[in-house]
Amino acid sequence: MTPVDLKAARKRLGMTQAQLGRALKLEGPDPARTVRTWEQGTRPIRGPVKVAVELLLRQAEAAGPDAREESVR
Fold first, then answer.
1. Which run of H or E residues covers position 3?
2. DSSP character at residue 60
3. Can you give the pLDDT at residue 40?
4. DSSP state of 64
5. Could you tell me which residues come within 8 angstroms of residue 13 by beta carbon, excluding any fewer than 6 positions away?
6. How many angstroms separate the Cα of 68 from the Cα of each of 9, 28, 44, 50, 59?
7. Alpha-carbon distance 13 to 20, whole Å?
8. Residue 73, pLDDT above cutoff 50
9. N or C of the chain: less Cβ packing under 10 Å?
10. DSSP character for 58?
């Protein structure tokens, strides 16, 4: 997964960087910072992150567009 792929997936999910960080259960005071470094390409995106993001996308697609809007609120 490239930085561009990750950003596109996050946008499809309708999430901010902070929301994606929380959804991925990232630890630390600023989950958005980790997502930001992945999207900027300054930190490698590891395999488990790719798998987790793909699962989030599948869940969102199965739930439909209305569920994505609700999850962001």
1. helix 3-13
2. H
3. 97
4. -
5. 20, 56, 57, 60, 68
6. 13, 25, 27, 19, 9
7. 9
8. no
9. C
10. H
Give whole-number Cα distances, 13 to 23, 29, 38, 39, 49, in Å. Answer: 11, 23, 17, 15, 15
Nearest to 54 by CA among 8, 22, 18: 8
What is the per-residue pLDDT across 29-53, written as a single tens digit (0 to 9) for each? Answer: 899 999 999 999 999 999 999 999 9
DSSP assignment string, 4-56: HHHHHHHHHHT--HHHHHHHTT--SS-HHHHHHHHHHTSS---HHHHHHHHHH
Of 71 and 60, the structure prediction assigns the larger pLDDT to 60
Q: Which of 13, 9, 15 is nearest to 62 (CA)?
A: 13
